Fold this protein.
Amino acid sequence: MKLGLRQGVLEIKQFLRSREQVMFTLAFPAILILVFSGEIGDGVKFTQYFVTGMIATGLMTAGFQSLAIQIPQERDRGVLKRLLGTPMPRWVYFAGKVLMVTFIAVLETIILLTVATLLFGLRLPDTAEQWLTFLWVSALGITACTLCGVAFSSLARTGRSAPAVVTPVALILQFISGVFFVFTSLPVWMQNVASLFPLKWMCQGLRSVFLPASFGPREPGGSYDLPMVALVLGGWCVVALVLCLTTFRWTTRRDG
């Protein structure tokens, strides 16, 4: 456990030492809040709706996008191959990544909620039940995204090609999952495609926390449907874990 903690501290230090990465990862969601304004109905500001998508996107960026790019680059540089030659248990490497992702996700969410609350009057959850929903949706979402990022990292042939492989996938998911637009205003086929992936369900679960109950009927199926949110996100955790165990590569293809 000490090794896992030390590896996590190392990963966090490496993240914090990259100023450009820190600024983009932590500040970008809060900056986007400045762009969107107006109301979506019943006196609810668009910020109240938009913040749910930005929290979910932040979790996806910290878990899926960052790991799916970072791991191939480390594999390409021979970092993973050298780790195999040490007595360190393999799980310690992944423990470090999990701690880094958790640190980034928590810090990014705090910054986003603080900016949205102070500058745009975001209404925070006001009941213990809402906060509990916020926590379990976020926990399942970040777990699914982290496991998907590790699994997806095996698709990139080289570290240099990883951003080109991963970034379009992340952007497409954001546009079809109700991050930048009200989800029910999107074409039905987009809604159906988005329903296959975790981001849509993360947004839906978070909307049940930040939006009034009167908006539930506007959701697909006529409700926020939290049991289905839990089922889909939990299913993705299982599927992604199986993919991680069966497809993860410690060396490049040219190394065999």
